[in-house]
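Lay summary. Proteins are chains of building blocks that fold into shapes, and those shapes determine what they do. In this project we predict the shape from the chain. Here is one chain we studied, written as its sequence of building blocks.
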Amino acid sequence: MQKSKIKNQNNRIELDHGGGGYKSWELLRDIRGILRLKGKWKNCEDDAAIFNLEKQKLVFTTDAFIVDPIFFPGGDIGKIAICGTINDLAVMGARPLGISLSMIIEEGFPKADLMKIIESIDAVSRQAGIPVVTGDTKVTEKGKIDKIEITTAGVGLAKKIISNNGINPGDLIITSGDLGEHAAALLSKRFNYKTRVKSDSKPLNEELEKVGKYLNACKDPTRGGLAANLVEMAEKSKVKVVLDEKILPYKKEIIAISELLGIDIFSLASEGRFIAAVSPKKVKKVLQILRKYNNPPTGGAKIIGRAERGRGVFLKTSLGSLRPIEMPKGKLIPRIC
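And here is the predicted shape, written in a compact code that computers can read:
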């Protein structure tokens, strides 16, 4: 029997391990330390894994969703489940072909609520032109789970892979729109805070199909928000990224909600946005295309920083000093995606 290399095996899993921050990274590192067989699959630490075919690349991803509340302004657990899987394929440069849908449902869950969730999945499927082609459904005893859990997987094809480790010194860092609205919408609903904020969840495949060939690196800032995902991209790319405090991609209402709840705004998740690295020669064209999908009045695509030689992610403050942005640690926001 193979001897486990994981340290501190007597420790228990905590909410931190699922929050998308440093503890999540540690847990995934330990899991990957055991699951070492990769076969001919590549990019197994990106949002999706790659298998080389003769002329194209097969892209494969999966994700699980537990959300509280399951219905929130701008969506529900079904919408973010299918959007999340479509987007994990799209940010890799793939054209999604099909989605699988697996659900575990608690005994006593209202059938009307289940049908609303399915209708949300169907609406996104039709909007994106990507069918749900297979799946599985289980019902478990009351109290075994919290209402409903959804797992989706997806496959797609790509000619060019956009890895999240491709940032080059000199690249400009952009967002496809303002960030944090998904997490803010769920938190507002959870704490009964009246706001007009809605989840930003939506499929990204159409806009990424238009701009993917111009991007050097790309990722959707879901769990852990801008901080966790941009830090990961910078570390993998071995570059230094400097963000400009004057042009951060957060609406005033999102900033107010984060300050009210005492939550780091850089850790707020989005479910319908991406961050990317683009060369200065191509950035104007990319922004012009993206603004057709996210108009400036609603928080359009924008440049938020630049990559340089060095390591780490930093925020250039209004006073001109550099403040480090680190992988989030401690308890993040539970059950948002």
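What the prediction tells us: Confidence is low (pLDDT under 50) at residues 1-6.
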